[in-house]
Amino acid sequence: MPEVSEARPAQPGIAAANRAVRDRLPFDDEQDFHDARRGFIGTAAQNVIRDAQGRPVWDLQAYGFLTQDCPDTANPSLWRQSRLCREHGLFEVTDGIYQVRGFDLSNMTLVEGERGVFVIDPLLCAETAGAALALYRAHRGERRVSGVLYTHSHVDHFGGVRGVVTDEDVAGGVPVYAPQGFLEHAVSENVYAGTAMSRRAAYMYGAALPKGERGQVGAGLGQTTSTGAVTLIPPTVDITRTGQSETVDGIRMVFQLTPGTEAPAELNIHFPDHHALCMAENATHNLHNLLTLRGAQVRDPRVWARYLTEAVTLFAASSDVAFASHHWPVWGRERVVKFLSQQRDLYAYLHDQSLRLLNQGLTGPEIAERLQVPPALERAWHTHGYYGSVSHNTKAVYQRYLGWFDGNPAHLWEHPPVESATRYVQFMGGAAEVLRRARQSYADGDYRWVAQVLGHVVFADPDNAEARRLQADAFEQLGYGSENGTWRNFYLTGAYELRHGPLGTPAAAAAPDVLAALTLEQLFDALAIRVNGPRSWDADIIVRWHIDQGETVTMRLRNGVLTHVTGAGPAAAAPHVEITLTEADLRALLLGALSPADLAAKDSVEITGDAGRLSELLGYLDTPDPDFAIVTP
């Protein structure tokens, strides 16, 4: 675990701003604390959850420091949210419905049936999911798992599935439910841009940062991400329409599909016999992301708001409790309607007002500085930007409608970062002069400017130790003042890496189960993304695969582009080499588990033509860098 000995105290301006938050917000409102603790049954006897090798993947006591009063080095609103999120254990939501909370970034929900228990969203890794199920069984008995449901396609809602069921269980009839399109989005998001997303997620969740008042205090949506084994068992039953009803082990469920909201494939669930509504991740106790800082496709707040209205219309009148896959439930029909309606108004307001200002000619950063949430919404704790933020969400709306370009031709063809930085520093009189002025800006409390201007010095001269130190100090102060957990983690991770070098990426981009779930189409597409175009400009290589199920795929590298076609036809040119093999062997080769030589040595594989062309083609593939630089060039 990294040390925090170099972490600075809060500067007077940041400390004063944080004290002002205490005066401005209704900290005497204790309703969330009552709700977060309601129904508590018990928690695990062991504080640390470990993998098979004994490596810790989750620590239930890592955030014990949050019981103290909020220090000057944290925004009191974020500190309050993190105190709520650290509540861990088994909780009763309503008769027959339980949640394990605080065992990972997300919650695992367990619904008791006639003979077993139905598991919803089995956390991020197998180890934490297994511990959560064990806790449930310790208090509720050894019920078998009678079904599993993934509410949506983000890894913290399916990655722990092998901690609760096995392939044999599923083959023996245990159903796995998911919204239509789940598998495509779950695997593509973790593979196509998975390396870059994982690297940025290391900044976003701060999982490798030290926990403490000058370090990581949470991520708003939950505390952080676990670091165990990510797994995936493909769904066996798709939910394809709103109003679809399914009964498992006597548990009746009515579904609402919500594609394009918090995830490309997502659903809400109503339990009519329990008068309970599961909102997945569409309504949680914070403003969510329209564009997550780790990177993703921009979400649609207009559609999001409409689905929240639909949820109120369809289910609120018969729901005594609403719960989600993060945070704590809301009880009482009036409170449920108010909560969902305020969440709806929040996303609709950001969408509509961003577009209003966009159509007045404001750019994304300008909108972000001007737009404020209405006071009536800000008074509700659950609208605060602990995970998403008004600032980066409004920029996301701008991006969704107009893209990266703000229309100013000065920004159409700018120099890339290092070349721009070198010129800026020269124009400003050299690194020494920039540092002199930046030190004064730091003393004045203008940390945003210090971070911005010293970025030019660091990118022009990454070995400038003084510039790195001062930018790290500015990042740290910005983190201390952030209400948003992910902003704090980004700033503090950036400060750490400027001082010490890369922390690394705690989680792999694509776990074996995720890779195994790729269709062959997706696997060929993932391979094409890795082709080094300039190195392969002059290559023209055609490989034809004859796969055991009778499928023929012709793969061609030409003009730096790797394409593939299925079957015969004019697009399938004459191959340089033909290979007959099983789909398992093809997958192993394309995923790097088998080399061309290993493949050729297998008795079950038949190769005709120039086998060397396959090795040549694979030699043009780049290996992604999971630890690429972010705050340095």
Question: Which characteristics define this entry?
Answer:
alpha+beta, 633 residues, single chain, 38% helix
Give a structural overview.
- The protein has 633 residues and is an alpha+beta fold.
- It is 38% helix and 15% strand.
- An 8-stranded mixed β-sheet has the order 1-4-5-6-7-8-9-10, covered by helices on one side. Strands 11-12-13-14-15-16 form a 6-stranded mixed β-sheet, with helices on one face.
- Strand 15 and strand 16 form a beta hairpin.
- Helix 8 packs antiparallel against helix 9, helix 10 runs antiparallel to helix 12 and helix 16 runs antiparallel to helix 17.
- The chain is globular, with a radius of gyration of 26 Å.
- It starts with 11 loop residues before the first helix and ends in a 15-residue tail after the last helix.
- 48% of the residues are buried.
- The mean pLDDT is 95.
